[in-house]
Amino acid sequence: MDLRIEGKRALVLASSKGLGHGIAVALAREGVNVLLCGRSGERLESNCKAINAEGKGRADWVWADLGDENFVEIVSKAVTEKLGGIDILVNNSGGPTPGTTEDMTADRLETYFVTMVSRIITLTNALVPAMKVQGWGRILTVASSGVVEPIPNLALSNTLRPALVGWSKTLASEVAADGITVNLLLPGSIATDRLTELDTAAANRGGRSLEDVSAERQQRIPAGRYGRVEEFAATAAFLCSEPASYVTGTMVRCDGGAARSL
User: Fold this and answer.
1) Which family does the UniProt entry place this protein in (predicted)?
2) Which of 16, 100, 112, 255 gives 43 a disulfide partner, CB atoms 3.0 to 4.6 angstroms apart?
């Protein structure tokens, strides 16, 4: 399928590795010029070199920390200077450390609310006006399957990420007439460093091996395996495409059928 987004400009947050990096690569392969963003300049630079070596969409990067009070200003300036504007915004952030509800101190709640919710919203607010002017835009936010089925021992994530659901749905209704789509993409168990971290934590809690925990979790997924970053990124690229112009205000799962809710 021709996604018809060649020449578009995309900002992908938290794209030094994992799902964000995968999405940036997938968009670039469709001819999109991408701006990578994260906290590891070395990885971002390496990622951009690899993308540019493929010769389709071009890549550049900006160092920015979601926890920095100047994050929105830094990234907005980079969008103007390095992309010359924006068509596609992929909101993405790292997840919080595992833990129960008893581990949710006020300080931890406030810290992660900033990096996982408020910075996402304020950055989007800063970039939406330009999309409205041009009459075209895509806003895709990577959340978690925990918003439809809470994940054990991820209390902070289960608490904070659902805030993005209400926000995204509201925004979708407000900007649909401007040619802008707004969607959430919900990853299940995708094979990334984050998944290894969570499996390791589960193994340590139960005094088991990482291999046993991983095998058991994969058996509970109807697809019988963990997802690949490339599969997840392909779904993201479609949601950012021209053919997906009538898909908005939705939550799309990419989880191998793992979530049992309707």
Assistant:
1) Belongs to the short-chain dehydrogenases/reductases (SDR) family.
2) 16
